[in-house]
């Protein structure tokens, strides 16, 4: 496996790409100069058209209309360039998720919209969704063999949204936000990683039905043991 591909989800260093993207989205970080953005745009287009493995730094420089030296000044290696392209796509996912759930009026509606938005955003992304669809042996294993860091990052993001609902009084304070978020994320991840023969993942109405039937009830805390007898 090419090193750049194995690094997509778990970059070297203390934080994964997903963790960095999550922090960027929450803190609304914007450290992009024009040339850097131009190179990342070109790399994204190059990787979508030709794939990561078949693309070179020279290809990216040519598509960006800059010299190869300029690309290397911003990104020392191809791995670094791939990591930053993927990180930006995950940042866009988090940003889009936050925009989508703002359209909903209730906590239940936000769960439904968030579930549908997440699957649509990742599956329809030409780079991330394309790799999941065409090279699942390269990307999917890295999502499940990183010691749980990828899942934990997304769980942290969803749990944060649930705690906002609790503070607003929309969800019971007795709800275990971390556990509910983990279950929601695991369900979403299973749809991404394992094809379904029952649910059309390209049908937003079907996805919304699944979310209302199985995810929304998670917003209710478990009844006390005395009430179950």
TrEMBL record:
HTH tetR-type domain segment(s): 33-93
InterPro entries referenced in this protein's UniProt entry, alphabetically = Homeodomain-like_sf, HTH-type_TetR-like_transc_reg, HTH_TetR, Tet_transcr_reg_TetR-rel_C_sf
Species lineage: Bacteria, Bacillati, Actinomycetota, Actinomycetes, Streptosporangiales
Please name the Gene3D superfamilies in this protein's record.
Answer: Tetracycline Repressor, domain 2
Note the SUPFAM superfamilies from the entry.
Answer: Homeodomain-like (SSF46689), Tetracyclin repressor-like, C-terminal domain (SSF48498)
Q: Which organism is it from?
A: Actinomadura miaoliensis
Question: Keyword DNA-binding: yes or no?
Answer: yes
Q: What is this protein called?
A: TetR/AcrR family transcriptional regulator
Keywords, in A-Z order: DNA-binding
Looking at the keywords, is Signal present?
no
Q: Which residue ranges carry the DNA-binding annotation?
A: 56-75
